[in-house]
Design a protein that fits this description.
about 240 residues, alpha/beta, 6-stranded parallel sheet, two-stranded antiparallel ribbon
């Protein structure tokens, strides 16, 4: 486990993070990077902040982004080929971020999921309404031999006034991954406050950029370089290095 800041000085990079486990930097397959050139720009920008290892996690959401292991591998291959030419020092692999809905069931049952290293499965819900039978999904994922990792729990506004909902999912073995930009207020004041509460309650296990586009990269760069991220996270501990490096 990595203890974030043990020095009194502010940290102005992301080298402490070790690996970004949540981003949308594969080209042309979801609402993230539209092409290889954009992907390379995003990766280079993040590397300037001190990151050298990336696990890309494109959406798998049947109604909008019906990705499969084949489509994801194809996008990764096209990017990886170009990355090796320009930045052979950087490491790029892939998993996926799964929307928990009725279309997820057959994917899980057929064992067609793409987990993070160590069989950790990144999942998400709608930002507007809680997934029906969410506890069943968490149970089924665990029963399949995988560990559920809930992406950006701070962004589910229907949980903001019910800390016990978060605690229940944690009790079931679900890990939580925080978006760094949530602490910057990028998604709104309510989400920033929820992120702060989750950190205070020691409910966050992992962090990620969830980078989709240039606006995210610019906002993240400003947040990191200013030292404001250092102030926001303080002495909290995360497991990115321990689990994925």
């Amino acid at each position: 486990m990595f203890s974030f800041f043990k020095r009194s000085t502010l940290v102005r990079d992301l080298s402490w993070m070790g690996v970004d486990i949540h981003s949308h930097i594969l080209p042309g397959i979801d609402d993230g990077s539209p092409d290889v050139d954009s992907s390379l720009r995003f990766i280079n920008g993040l590397s300037e902040l001190g990151l050298q290892k990336f696990i890309a996690t494109p959406h798998v959401f049947h109604d909008f982004y019906p990705n499969t292991p084949l489509t994801i591998d194809s996008a990764w291959s096209s990017l990886h080929q170009e990355l090796k030419k320009s930045r052979p020092d950087l490491e790029l692999s892939y998993a996926a971020e799964y929307m928990l809905d009725i279309d997820f069931d057959p994917v899980l049952k057929a064992n067609q999921c793409l987990p993070l290293l160590g069989n950790y499965l990144l999942v998400e819900m709608s930002f507007q309404v809680e997934t029906m039978n969410i506890e069943k999904y968490i149970f089924d994922i665990s029963l399949s031999g995988k560990v559920p990792v809930l992406a950006h729990p701070e962004r589910y506004i229907y949980y903001h006034n019910d800390l016990q909902k978060y605690r229940r999912l944690k009790e079931m073995g679900c890990l939580f991954q925080l978006n760094l930009l949530s602490l910057a207020g990028y998604y709104g004041k309510g989400i920033k406050k929820a992120a702060q509460v989750l950190l205070k309650e020691n409910l966050i296990d992992l962090v990620g950029t969830d980078l989709h586009h240039d606006r995210h990269l610019r906002a993240l760069t400003t947040f990191v370089r200013s030292g404001d991220l250092s102030k926001a996270i303080g002495s909290n501990q995360f497991k990115n290095r321990e689990m994925f490096l």
